[in-house]
Structures are given as C-alpha cells and as structure tokens.
Amino acid sequence: MELKKIDYFNYEAYSFTYDGLDAFIVKPSVKPNGKWVYKTEYFTAFPDIQNEFLDRGYHLLCNKNYTRWAPANEVLRKGEFIKFVSKEFGLSKKCITIGMSAGGLYACKIAEAFPELIDVLYIDAPVMNLLSCPLGLGIGKPHVIDECLDALKLTMSQMLSYRDNPIDKMDVLIKNDIPVVLVVGDSDDIVPFCENGALLEKYYNENGGKIVVYIKENCGHHPHGLEDYKGLVDQIEKFSKQ
Length: 242
What we know:
33% helix
C-alpha cells in the first residue's frame, strides 16, 4: 500500500487508496495511544474535535464514499474499512466515530451493522430518518431527494415504506451498550432535531442507554461541534471502554 504525504493542519498525514477511493490517515502530535477516531464523512470540515483527539494520542482515519446516503453496500465498505485499519496500522479493533450530518447517518448505520467495531458514537446533527431529511421537514429539495433515491435504488413509493433508518434499529445500539454523545442545534431546519436526534435521545433515556446530549440554542445545522471542544472530547473519553 502506497502512502502519499498530504497537507492537514500541520499534522503528519497521508492519503492512500482503499477499494478504489481515496482514504486518509493522520498521525497524532504526541505519543500514539493505539486508539483512533473515524471521521465517516467530510474529512476536513469542522476539525477542532478531531484535532483535539490527535493532540491526545489518537490516530484519525477517513475514507471517501460513493454516496452520502449510506446504502447497505457502502455501510459494509465502512465496516470492512474499520477492520482493515485495525489490522494494517496496528490500531485498536474498535473506533470512536465522528459523524456530522450525513456522516452521522453513516456512523449510526455502521454501529447498528457492526456494533462490535464501535466504542463510542459521537454524532453531530445526524441524519437518522430519511423521511425527515431529505424527504420531510429537512432539506426537501428535489435534486437532493433524487440523489437519495438514486443512491438507495428506490422509488418514492418504496421510500415511504423504507425501514432501514437508524431510528428503526436503535434497539441494536442499546443491546450492545454503545454510548452516544449527541450534539444538535435547536433551530436546525436541514436535519430537524425533533425528527432525528430527539428520537434517539428519548429511546436511550427510556431504555437505560448511556447518552449525553448538547443542544445549542439558536443554532441551525451549522456550525458543527461545540466551542468547548475539549470538554466534548472529555465526555467522549469518559464513555470510552478502551
């Protein structure tokens, strides 16, 4: 496997090819601890939290997707990528996800399909219900809806009976004791909290799951993350079982 040096916020970082698409690895700025975080989409977007992990000894990994809407074959690719990273780079078998927006969709679906590979689920304004975003109160733009339907190979009629959303499989997360750190904006009109993350919060609280929710007042879909990103990482590490 060939590693090519790339620029990434003054960290030592490389690109490589995984299953025909670009992937990225960033080395920590201090002594490695053998753990890693997986940015499931939007590699360089809102990087404060992932860079804080790098400064605490974690590696950062990301691989590109063919689509942001997480069809089953892409979720399988993600699970295999986690296994590949653990073996190829000698890192822990479980990872912490950083899933923002559609990256949150991926993070949840990976955790539900491969719970044994996930340590902590950090999700930020996550898409958890495609009937909300992009079909409902969320984005709702025709070209985005078409993009989603095409990615999932479904018609609109089939989509209305789609039951492979993260909110349809939350019991798997509880059953496998996967803790969740959730960040949302209370004014998000792209991925409305009431139709997405709020359903996860309610389910976890009613079924004894471990969850911490940060609600940002008067905040829309962006920016992701928190101003206190160090405290956010502290909470994720408290939930970590590694």
